[in-house]
């Protein structure tokens, strides 16, 4: 495999960031902040937010793992698809 030049590296980095960041501008409804397979709990209304998918460690970052309408928290902490929500409310 050949080495990437600086421009190629920047392009790949930009694609990677775009792929793992999403804006949920219409908001959403979910069942749980800790269990993605929960289909029985009452719905939680989530205001518009940014979703950043990255292997965040709540203990290392100090971010909470409980729902917040504004500010950042880690959703589904400890799961392979844990991600940071950052509310814009």
What does this structure look like?
With 89 residues, the protein is an alpha+beta fold. It has one domain. It is built from 2 helices and 6 strands. It has a 4-stranded antiparallel β-sheet with strand order 1-4-6-5. It is globular and about 50 Å long. The termini are far apart. The mean pLDDT is 75.
User: What low-confidence regions span 5 or more consecutive residues with pLDDT below 50?
Assistant: none
| Largest sheet features | 4 strands, antiparallel
Anisotropy-based shape: globular
Mean pLDDT: 75
What keywords describe this structure?
single chain; two-stranded antiparallel sheet; 89 residues; 6 strands; globular; alpha+beta
Write the layout of secondary structure elements.
Layout: H1 6-20, E1 21-24, E2 28-30, E3 44-46, E4 49-53, H2 58-61, E5 70-75, E6 83-88
Antiparallel strand pairs: 1-4, 2-3, 4-6, 5-6
Short structural description:
This protein is an alpha+beta fold and about 90 residues long. The chain has helices at about 5-20, 60, and strands spanning about 20-25, 30, 45, 50-55, 70-75, 85-89. It is globular.
């Amino acid at each position: 495999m050949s080495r990437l030049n600086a421009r190629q590296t920047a392009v790949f980095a930009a694609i990677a960031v775009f792929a793992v960041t999403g804006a949920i501008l219409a908001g959403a409804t979910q069942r749980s902040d800790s269990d993605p397979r929960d289909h029985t709990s009452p719905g939680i209304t989530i205001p518009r937010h940014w979703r950043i998918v990255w292997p965040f460690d709540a203990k290392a970052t100090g971010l909470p793992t409980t729902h917040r309408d504004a500010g950042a928290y880690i959703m589904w902490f400890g799961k392979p698809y844990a991600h940071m929500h950052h509310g814009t409310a």
